[in-house]
Design goal:
By secondary structure, this protein is of the alpha/beta class. Helix content is about 25%, strand content about 30%. The strands form six sheets. Strands 1, 2, 3, 4, 5, 6 and 19 form a seven-stranded mixed beta sheet that branches. Helix 1 packs parallel to helix 8.
Amino acid sequence: MTVDHADVVIVGAGHGGAQAAIALRQNGFEGRVLVIGREPEIPYERPPLSKEYLAREKTFERICIRPAQFWEDKAIEMRLGTEVISLDPTAQAVTLGDGSKVQYGKLIWATGGDPRRLSCTGADLAGVHQVRTREDADRLMRELDAGAKRAVVVGGGYIGLEAAAVLTKFDVQVTLLEALPRVLARVAGEALSEFYQAEHRAQGVDLRTGVAMDCIEGNGTAVTGVKMQDGSTLPADIVIVGIGIVPCIGPLLAAGASGANGVDVDEFCRTSLPDVYAIGDCAAHASAFADGALIRLESVQNANDMATTAAKDICGAPVRHGATPWFWSNQYDLRLQTVGLSTGHDQAVLRGDPAARSFSVVYLKCGKVIALDCVNMVKDYVQGKKLVEARAQIAPGLLADAGVPLKDLVG
């Protein structure tokens, strides 16, 4: 068997993998770069799948990270429609699904995660969807085009809420189920959760919190409803599951890499295996914004920042990863922008009036600003970033006064 070789092999053709390849060229790397992707498509943006792409507001071409010609012009090779099934760190080689092998000088693991699936009866019926890939979104759109009018969304995180918002545009009757007492419970404070719950209900979504489903019912092949633990059944033509992801790190762990919920990396995105880096949703790193705890961040910004860190290290110009986390979500005509990590906050300060559909929530821990959630408040988001980075200690009364620009509070 002829074994292929590349100076840098990038496993995963999502945001992180694409940015790693781009950053290598931007930093002067002239060796052979090979990107191996499980999907058949060239790298594309994931967030629009549950927003603009699903809503038919953007075509696939408009969500591609770069046009096809770009990759050819930059001499970045793509091997798509296949995946890495094992890794031999001694031979510095990966084995693909077709049995072929590729040796690497450096390896960047950028596989992200697979959607967490329901474990109940009926979870594999036709009509049960996740929205993680273009194929997922296309399948869902075909069923909407075929006349699906009743949807149950399982999960009150960003993916579930965004999908629910888009479905209302298609005149679909939407029921959203969240097992916890409120939506966004793991990532935001009560004020933001209450605002989005009220917004979705005002838009016609039957949003239910603190509920548990029993199973998915079907006619033998396709979903017909969702049975709840109280015995009731919600009729459904489609079910969308948005309950998080499972990081795709099996081959790395099998090869001896350290990790559990994600593969562990250092400040330069290096794993415990020699010449192997990991970036994006699948990589667990110590974050100063989480008091040094080892965390995974599921965001485009984090994938891109880690990609640049890994590329610079490979190019001999190491810079520690430590970018400020930020996120966003579009639902209806609302743009939520988040900076920092609110996990572990002990105080939340409301800034502005939610009734005006333009406000911010400032999160404090031990009196210091650690994060902001900004709804249709771009200035607060931009100016608040400096407060988060400085861990500014500011009186809650000042933060609550929307008439005082946050930039005036930066020391």
